[in-house]
Amino acid sequence: MIGKLKGLIDAYGEDFVILDVGGVGYQVHCSTRTLQHLPSPGEAAVLSIETYVREDQIKLFGFRTDQEREWFRLLQTVQGVGAKVALAVLGTLAPSDLANAIALRDKAAVARTPGVGPKVAERIVTELKDKAPAFANVDPAVVHLAGAVDDQRAPRPVADAISALVNLGYGQPQAAAAIASAARSAGESAETAQLIRLGLKELSK
């Protein structure tokens, strides 16, 4: 199995690059984000590779980092997500942004991917929610709160405060982060109005 390729960019296709490794041209399929970050033809490049072997073909998928390749694998553990959809998601969201979106249950961010509808986005967020926090760079308290709100386990004042901020036009992840911070400073017995006031102050920083 091929795990990494290092060579010269020979040419670009719509969704692939030809990488010349010692005179052999490998066709490597990449996300649009990866293709945009690769150098011009004739320049050197290194790609982490995922090799797919089928009865009728061998297909190579290339990534700028091992973490991006790991997300490619993780995404395909979700029902209904194949290589094409996984590449499309990684073309829309960088691995860190994808991890944050899943950790915060931000289905809308995932659904921005062309070809990914609300149902598939929800499956991605739901089925990978336990794996995402390890890759995310958001406050664990915010991740915990986002999960509690999504599962309708959050205290009523907290849920109402987040809902109020969302109604004011803030995104769900933004609102959850602000209210998590507000709840930390105000304590568990804080009322909805106080949480909203502190949350708005947090958002205006």
From TrEMBL:
Region annotated Domain I, chain positions: 1-64
Keywords of this entry: Cytoplasm, DNA damage, DNA recombination, DNA repair, DNA-binding, Hydrolase
SUPFAM superfamilies per the UniProt record, alphabetical: DNA helicase RuvA subunit, C-terminal domain, Nucleic acid-binding proteins, RuvA domain 2-like
Gene3D superfamilies: 5' to 3' exonuclease, C-terminal subdomain, DNA helicase RuvA subunit, C-terminal domain, Nucleic acid-binding proteins
Residues annotated as domain Helix-hairpin-helix DNA-binding motif class: 73-92, 108-127
Compartments (UniProt record): Cytoplasm
Region Domain III, residue ranges: 156-205
GO molecular function, one term: hydrolase activity
Organism superkingdom: Bacteria
Pfam families (alphabetical): HHH_5, RuvA_C, RuvA_N
Major location category of this protein: cytoplasm
Subunit record text: Homotetramer. Forms an RuvA(8)-RuvB(12)-Holliday junction (HJ) complex. HJ DNA is sandwiched between 2 RuvA tetramers; dsDNA enters through RuvA and exits via RuvB. An RuvB hexamer assembles on each DNA strand where it exits the tetramer. Each RuvB hexamer is contacted by two RuvA subunits (via domain III) on 2 adjacent RuvB subunits; this complex drives branch migration. In the full resolvosome a probable DNA-RuvA(4)-RuvB(12)-RuvC(2) complex forms which resolves the HJ.
Function, in words: The RuvA-RuvB-RuvC complex processes Holliday junction (HJ) DNA during genetic recombination and DNA repair, while the RuvA-RuvB complex plays an important role in the rescue of blocked DNA replication forks via replication fork reversal (RFR). RuvA specifically binds to HJ cruciform DNA, conferring on it an open structure. The RuvB hexamer acts as an ATP-dependent pump, pulling dsDNA into and through the RuvAB complex. HJ branch migration allows RuvC to scan DNA until it finds its consensus sequence, where it cleaves and resolves the cruciform DNA.
Domain comment, as recorded: Has three domains with a flexible linker between the domains II and III and assumes an 'L' shape. Domain III is highly mobile and contacts RuvB.
Family: Belongs to the RuvA family.
Name listed for the protein in its UniProt record: Holliday junction branch migration complex subunit RuvA
